[in-house]
Backbone:
């Protein structure tokens, strides 16, 4: 009796500490005992095992079908023999005949123990997988446990997650013991348990940081329309407000830039441009080149192409270092963008080097290059 009590107490402890329900363990134990019984007592092939959930008592039953003529003594029982057990039985019913467990317990204990241990490990892995699957596409904090072959291994408590080189920010220097935020990019269920892939370079990492820092985004007042990112260098984010009284850019920036500063700090200095999204394509394209000023925007919607004219003094700012600002604006809006300084644009028009045909372009030229 004491052994049974200890067993039940152990199950309570496993459930409490490892998050594995007792029912899973009981079910695994019943299957393990059945497998062990069949291995050691093969003559009884049709056996059912039941463990009392309250007392822990193990009972074995031979399951036999009631038939008129018995052809297989292991799986069948005659109607007369069945009625000798209980008058309620009739042809086709299943009869459970209790078996002695003493010999079985001695022979099968070790086999059953090994199987149960494995089943408990499997169940524990499943619990961990389900726990982290719920965190997929969310932010998580973890400490860098070790660095091996440029992979970061992150201690998440119940398991060790990985950040592969493509998911790292190239400009960042990582140190063992450092604690950082990560985006949970993928959670896989493998034979060895949950495999969690984390990222700091994914564009959704920035999105989730804004959700964390900006209550108006979390409650749906302000929405992120699009994000374009070059990890470690610069991000452009287009936002709009469902409430006319809420400035979407101001909400994201925060009082004295407190909100966006927290995000930039987490991103180790990555620059962030926050612009207003507009359903007016020309206005949206103009905003996308922030911080540059824009004189005019001409579009060819059938080809998703835009020609944007900027002051000559703003040309390098509009294009950005190594074309980054223009490239991010194109990613953000999903438009092919050609940026021209005003004087060069006039010169190319006069020399017939530009084929005029974008929406609003001819009117701009006819008005002396003024809107």
Residues:
């Amino acid at each position: 009796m004491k052994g049974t009590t200890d067993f039940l107490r152990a199950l309570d402890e496993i459930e409490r500490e490892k998050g594995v329900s007792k029912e899973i363990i009981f079910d695994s134990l019943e299957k393990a005992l059945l497998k062990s019984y069949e291995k050691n007592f093969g003559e009884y092939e049709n056996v059912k095992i039941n463990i009392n959930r309250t007392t822990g008592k193990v009972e074995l039953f031979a399951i036999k079908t009631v038939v008129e003529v018995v052809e297989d003594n292991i799986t069948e029982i005659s109607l007369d023999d069945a009625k000798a057990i209980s008058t309620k039985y009739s042809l086709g019913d299943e009869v459970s005949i209790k078996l002695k467990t003493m010999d079985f317990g001695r022979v099968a204990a070790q086999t059953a123990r090994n199987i149960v241990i494995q089943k408990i490990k499997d169940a524990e892995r499943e619990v961990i997988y389900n726990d982290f699957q719920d965190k997929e596409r969310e932010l998580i904090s973890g400490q860098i446990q070790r660095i091996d072959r440029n992979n970061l291994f992150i201690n998440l408590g119940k398991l060790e997650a990985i950040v592969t080189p493509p998911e790292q920010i190239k400009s960042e220097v990582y140190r063992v013991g450092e604690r950082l935020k990560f985006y949970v990019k993928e959670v896989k269920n493998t034979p060895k348990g949950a495999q969690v892939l984390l990222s700091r370079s994914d564009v959704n990492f920035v999105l989730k940081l804004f959700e964390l820092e900006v209550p108006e985004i979390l409650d749906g007042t302000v929405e992120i329309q699009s994000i374009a990112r070059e990890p470690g260098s610069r991000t452009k984010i287009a936002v709009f407000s469902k409430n006319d009284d809420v400035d979407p850019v101001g909400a994201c920036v925060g009082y004295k830039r407190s909100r966006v500063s927290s995000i930039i700090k987490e991103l180790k200095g990555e620059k962030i441009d926050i612009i207003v999204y507009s359903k007016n394509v020309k206005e949206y394209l103009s905003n996308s080149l922030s911080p540059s000023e824009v004189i005019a925007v001409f579009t060819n919607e059938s080809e998703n192409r835009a020609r944007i004219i900027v002051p000559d003094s703003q040309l390098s700012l509009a294009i950005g270092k190594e074309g980054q600002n223009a490239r991010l604006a194109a990613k953000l809006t999903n438009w092919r963008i050609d940026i021209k300084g005003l004087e060069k644009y006039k010169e190319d028009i006069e020399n017939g080097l530009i084929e005029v045909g974008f929406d609003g372009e001819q009117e701009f030229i006819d008005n002396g290059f003024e809107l």
About this structure: DSSP finds 13 helices and 15 strands in the chain. The first strand starts at residue 47 and ends at 51. Residues 32 and 114 are 9 Å apart (CA to CA). The mean pLDDT is 89.
